[in-house]
Amino acid sequence: MNDLYMGIENEIIDKLLYDINNGVYNENEKMPSENDLASKYEISRIKVRNIYKKLEKMGYLYSLQGRGRFLKRRTKTIELVLSGNESFSKKLKENGFKLETINICCEKIEYNKHIYNELRADEDDEIYKIARLRIVDDEPIAIHISYVSKKIFPNIDREGEKITSMFDYYEKNGFKNYMTEKSILEIAYASVQERIYLKCEDLVPILKLETNCTDKNSQKILEYTEIMYRSDRFKYKIY
What we know:
Helix content is 31%, strand content 32%. The chain has eight helices and eleven strands. Strands 4, 5, 6, 7, 8, 9 and 10 form a seven-stranded antiparallel sheet that branches. A two-stranded antiparallel ribbon has the order 1-2. Helix 2 crosses helix 3. The protein is elongated, with a radius of gyration of 22 Å.
């Protein structure tokens, strides 16, 4: 019986998502009532309510007490190149987006084998974590975390908390030509703290990009980067 219910639940969710993605419902339009769906699919209202709650957690709907559930406004998706050698800020501004960046963290990290290996750092090197929250058109959409070595950027402990663009900081320190040695993309779910920053629901997947940035002239690795993007706000161009 439980397997049968799960099959019906998935069928209803798939149908609602198909209708949403094909324009059957308009932004802020009221969705079918729990009674209507319960009658149509011959299931209980409680099961319909659970289906709607799942769609809310996926970021598609919002509810108003006593009035029902409505289709959430879907903002324009942003196209990005899957690379670590392009300025996020510059790219978005060139495409007409209103961008705000907030520095949310500057701290020296404890030794972490993976991060130190990515930076080709010695175990006694000082590595700093610089995190920025990206807000586009008044909506938080990404968290950029850069790991950099104090050996390459001697003043990072004093200047890190003011950084909003790493590429501007590179140029300030004499690095002007960059390249990316690798880019790894995976789908994950945000931590509680990341969801708070990004203001996203539990079931909105996060696109996690791991990449780096290397100075072409000296071959020094300038940073190892982890970026968490809201998957409902981005599409990628991969070369």
